[in-house]
Design goal:
Order of helices and strands: EHEHEHEHHEHEHEHEH
Structural class: alpha/beta
Subcellular location: Cytoplasm
Number of strands: 8
Number of domains: 1
CATH topology: TIM Barrel
Catalytic activity: 2-deoxy-D-ribose 5-phosphate = D-glyceraldehyde 3-phosphate + acetaldehyde
Shape: globular
CATH class: Alpha Beta
Keywords: Cytoplasm, Lyase, Schiff base
Distance between the termini: 20 Å
Function: Catalyzes a reversible aldol reaction between acetaldehyde and D-glyceraldehyde 3-phosphate to generate 2-deoxy-D-ribose 5-phosphate.
Main location: cytoplasm
Length: 217
Amino acid sequence: MHNIASYIDHTALKPTLTLADADRLCAEARTFGFAAVCIPPPFVRRTRSLLEGSLVKTATVIGFPFGYSAIEAKVSEVLLAIVDGADELDMVINLVALKNNDWEYLAGEIGTILPLVHGKGKVLKVIVESGVLTRDELIRCCELYGAAGIDYLKTSTGYAETGATVEAVEIMQKHLPSSVHIKASGGIRTFAQAKTMIDAGATRIGTSAGVAIVQPS
C-alpha cells in the first residue's frame, strides 16, 4: 500500500463547524498530503483558497445527510459548489426512492446530476448509505451507478447507525465496473480499519480521524 494519507478525504461535516475548524483541517491536509478536504457547502470557497497551490482537492456534500432533497434542490447545490470552487462532490442518493423501489427516479436523478458535474470536469461520488441497504439493494446500486459512469460509489454518510463495513466494500468491488472507484466512510478511525477497507477494494477513505490514522500513537 502506498502512503495512506493519499487515500484520505480529511472530513468535518458537523453542522456546528467553525471557520477555525475548517482552517485547521486545511492546514492538516497540506501538512500530511491528504487527497481532499471534505467540508459543508458554506466553507467551499474559503477551503479552495486555503488549499491553493497544493495537490489537495476541495470536496463538499450534496443532499447531505439524508438524500431526500428534490432533484432541483440538488442541482442548485451542485451548481453553487462548482461556482465556489469544489473539485469533488459527494452526493447522497434519494433513499426514500430506493426504499420505495422507485429505481426510475434514481436513474433520473443521476442522469440529471452526473452530466452537470462531468460537464465541468469535476468528480462525483455517490453515497448509497450501505448500512441501511439490503445486499440486493446494494448490488442494484452498483449496477445502476456503475452503468451511469460515476467516479466513486461511497458507502456511508457517517450519520446512519452502521457506517462502512468490509462486507459492503467487498460487494461493491465485486459488482462495480473497474472504472468506478470505492470510497469507504463512516466510523473509520484507525490505521488498521483504514487498511482493511483499502485491502477490500476502497481507493478513498472518508474520515474525521485522518491525523490519528497517519500518526498512530
